[in-house]
Design a protein that fits this description.
The complex is a heterodimer. Chain A is an alpha/beta fold. In chain A, the strands form 2 sheets. A 4-stranded parallel sheet of chain A has the order 2-1-3-4, with helices on both faces. In chain A, strands 6-5-7-8 form a 4-stranded parallel sheet, sandwiched between helices. In chain A, strand 7, helix 12 and strand 8 form a beta-alpha-beta unit. Chain A is globular, with a radius of gyration of 18 Å. The two termini of chain A are about 30 Å apart. The radius of gyration of chain B is 26 Å and the shape is elongated. Chain B starts with 6 loop residues before the first helix and ends with a helix. Classes of the chains: A alpha/beta, B alpha/beta.
């Protein structure tokens, strides 16, 4: 094992939530991994793919393949972006056998952050400490496409001072859904409000997820409702000490 | 893009009582299903789903064979299979038969296929009275609306709504107690059963090797519909076929549990033709109408074919956070929820309701509960690609297309991407303030859409790549 990880920080984290990327790097370095960050990276192409623009998504995916061609472990602070790469890139190249082979090789090298910690780095406790009552939001693509359910909770249980309280509808969508959040704003907003009602009932002061896009949705709705609940990415919690 | 949503969507969201009714109704069904498939009760649930999926795949892939088989087997029992292309052909067959037999009154048990074909409206147009006998279906027929839900047609109505409809349509005193309302409907419908000339049912399954129609229900009205009148007509889509009677041991275990959380419904009827010699009851004539109405279009594509696996349990509706907000009548056709969003564009063409495949956060809750494992999110994504291709052909949505071309170009040019991010941040709101309404320089549809429901956090002072470079 080379103990070198390449970050794919995702465009949302890069531009809007850089602290998530910084935290992820800090955690990985703390447990002894050297970090590569290739600044040629941009986006996984999911916005175009989910909007039905396959040719455009394919061209972004090609760029991704180029950027990460030689990376052994690619670590991503998002279930959704990970899933785009590991579950949907192959659809974009279904008719191109050579590319498809590249995608198959890539799929095995891409790791969602929490899964990487548990299954590759094989750590559960990373020496984090953060006093709070937290509740965990299962992001849809992580839960249903990547089957990530207990991993992030296990990592949270090792954070000193943190009490984890399950909300009733942890598995229900926050309503983000990419362009859905603006094309069907009322529906999306309604879904967010249903979710934060459930978050509130736990009495938690922090809602945690492994996807910044869900957190942006929840954070925006919480702020609109003037509720004192903070949103934190798992990486940010694990980086705290 | 947002211009084409039905107005119903907004009015449903704004109606607090309706929201509560939908939430309570679907919530009950969710809880019941959850209890019914619990590991200790049904340890082989996941295997059953896989089995059901494979059985459906096999049947749909070999549909021509099974259609011939069922035609022969129904005839062997003295019944007749009638193949119809669409609602007009179905109505014509029934009208002709009614004319020949002098029939005036038809009783019907709940059938989504006949709702799909607008059969009641077609028959009424020719002065045939068709009365729905499932309680929920009877209520919505009186109300003059289409089903709100595949399994629970009056899911959106409270007992007070029902009281209003009964008072208005039956001319009776207002009654708000559900049990008493049921007795009122029962009294009316008993007379209809006794007087009816023809009974029309749907079919949950059509068993090819025995030529039997299987109908599941809880009220006994389907059994009466199929046995009291002299003529029984079952109407089913061609995708309702299953190869063998023994396959029911898979499907019946899944259907009731997925739909209402019942291990078995109160009644499961196996209807195989007219009364035989020596039998004391049952219809004198039996017809099985097998309808295409667009289904063969879905057969053509091996990837999309799985849309035809659906057994109409409604679980995807109950678990869909979008359906639970916008309700059944926001969808353009009788099939609502995730499965409706998948089959409607394939039946009607993607140009008709292009917004529909996009009305989803792609959360995947539908696929997770589907008893026959239809990959609904994948189908929605494929349909989205169809919609954008269609719009390109039509020269529509040019701005959106251009925006995604720019997006893709920028994402292939990291320096432009990085610069773009910094420019946006530089021109964005200053001073760490949250945005709750759009300033003039951000007054565009997506920002307005976002801010209509949520606030926008202040932009990060530096992007990750800047921080990384400087460290």
């Amino acid at each position: 094992m080379s103990n070198r990880a390449s970050l794919f920080v995702t465009c949302i984290v890069d531009q809007l939530f850089p602290n998530v990327g910084v935290s992820m790097a800090a955690v990985l370095e703390r447990i002894g991994w050297a970090i590569d960050f290739n600044p040629a990276q941009t986006c996984c192409g999911q916005p175009a793919f989910n909007s039905g623009y396959r040719a455009e998504a394919r061209s972004v995916a090609l760029h991704f393949l180029d950027v990460f061609r030689d990376a052994e472990y690619i670590v991503v602070p998002s279930g959704s972006c990970t899933s785009m790469i590991t579950h949907h890139f192959s659809e974009l190249f279904a008719a191109e056998p050579a590319r498809l082979e590249e995608v198959r090789s890539l799929e095995k090298r891409v790791w969602e952050f929490s899964r990487f910690l548990l299954e590759v780095a094989k750590v559960e406790g990373v020496g984090a400490s953060y006093g709070c009552v937290a509740t965990y939001h299962d992001s849809c693509h992580a839960l249903r496409e990547l089957k990530i359910k207990s991993g992030p909770r296990l990592l949270l249980s090792k954070v000193k001072g943190l009490e984890l309280r399950e909300m009733e509808i942890a598995e229900e969508c926050c309503g983000f859904g990419g362009t859905f959040s603006v094309k069907f704003a009322e529906v999306s907003g309604g879904m967010a409000r249903t979710k934060i009602e459930s978050i509130q009932k736990t009495g938690a002061d922090v809602v945690v997820s492994i996807d910044s896009s869900c957190l942006m949705q929840l954070q925006g709705a919480l702020h609109r409702a003037k509720l004192p609940v903070r949103t934190m990415h798992l990486a940010e919690l694990l980086a705290s000490r | 893009m947002a211009a084409n949503h039905p107005e119903k969507l907004s009015t449903t969201l704004a109606d607090a009582n309706l929201q509560l009714a939908i939430y309570a109704g679907t919530g009950r069904l969710i809880d019941h299903r959850k209890n019914a498939i619990a590991g200790d009760l049904l340890p082989d649930y996941e295997d059953l789903r896989t089995h059901a999926n494979l059985l459906k795949k096999h049947t749909i892939d070999n549909l021509d064979y099974y259609l011939e088989q069922v035609e022969q087997n129904v005839a062997a029992h003295g019944g007749k299979v009638v193949f119809c292309n669409d609602g007009t052909e179905v109505a014509d067959f029934i009208l002709n038969l009614a004319k020949q037999r002098g029939a005036k009154l038809i009783v019907k048990s709940k059938s989504m296929t006949t709702e799909e074909l607008d059969l009641n409206e077609r028959l009424e147009h020719h002065d045939l009275e068709a009365v729905e006998t499932d309680l929920g279906e009877y209520i919505i027929q009186l109300a003059g609306v289409k089903p709100y839900h595949i399994v629970a047609p009056a899911l959106h109505m409270t007992r007070y709504d029902v009281a209003d409809i009964f008072t208005d349509k039956l001319g009776i005193e207002r009654e708000v107690v559900p049990e008493k309302q049921t007795m009122i409907a029962r009294a009316v419908l008993r007379q209809k059963f006794l007087a009816a000339d023809i009974g029309i049912t749907g079919a949950n399954f059509v068993v090819a090797d025995s030529g039997a129609v299987v109908v599941v229900e809880n009220e006994g009205n389907a059994r009466l519909t199929s046995s009291a009148p002299k003529i029984h007509i079952a109407v089913a889509g061609i995708e309702k076929l299953i190869p063998r009677a023994q396959d029911l041991s898979v499907f019946l275990k899944l259907l009731g549990r997925s739909a209402t959380g019942q291990a078995l419904t109160s009644y499961t009827s196996f209807l195989s033709g007219p009364r035989r010699q020596g039998e004391v009851d049952g219809p004198e004539e039996f017809y099985l109408i097998l309808v295409d109405n667009g289904r063969t279009k879905l057969l053509a594509d091996p990837d999309r074919r799985q849309s035809l696996y659906c057994i109409r349990c409604g679980a995807c509706l109950n678990h869909c956070p979008v359906y639970r907000k916008i309700g059944g009548h926001s969808y353009p056709w009788v099939y609502s929820g995730p499965i409706g969003a998948v089959i409607t564009p394939q039946f009607h063409g993607v140009g008709k309701d292009p917004w529909l495949p996009f009305a989803s956060s792609l959360c995947g809750a539908c696929a997770e509960v589907c008893p026959v494992k239809i990959d609904i999110p994948k189908l929605l994504l494929d349909l989205r690609a169809d919609v954008t291709a269609h719009k390109k052909e039509q020269g529509e949505s040019k701005m959106e297309r251009f925006a995604f071309q720019v997006f893709a170009w920028v994402m292939r040019h990291p320096r432009v991407y990085a610069l773009g991010g910094r420019v946006a941040a530089a021109f964005g709101p200053k001073g760490g303030e949250w945005l709750s309404s759009a300033p003039w320089f951000l007054n565009v549809a997506p920002v307005r859409g976002w801010l209509s429901q949520r606030d926008l956090p202040p932009p990060a002072a530096k992007s990750f790549r800047q921080i990384w470079r400087e460290r």
